[in-house]
Amino acid sequence: MQTPDELHIPNDATYAPVSLTDLMAAAPIASRLVLGATLPGRVVQLAAVGLYARSVARDWSARQGMRRIDFKAEFGADVDLLLEQPRTSREMEVGRLATLLNRDYTPERIPRRKLAVRANRVLTDFIASITGQRVETSAEVRNLSLAGIVFPFAQGTCDILSGDIAIFRDTGIFEPHIITHEFVHRKGYLKELHAQALAYMALRGSGDPILVQSARAERLHRQLRVLHPEDPEAFEAALDSVDLRDELRETFLALRPPPNLYQSVVGETMKKLYDARMKLTGQNGLSDYDRGFTNFLHTFRFAEGVRQPRELAAV
Question: How far is CA 122 from CA 135, 143, 208, 236, 273, in A?
Answer without folding.
Answer: 12, 21, 10, 32, 33
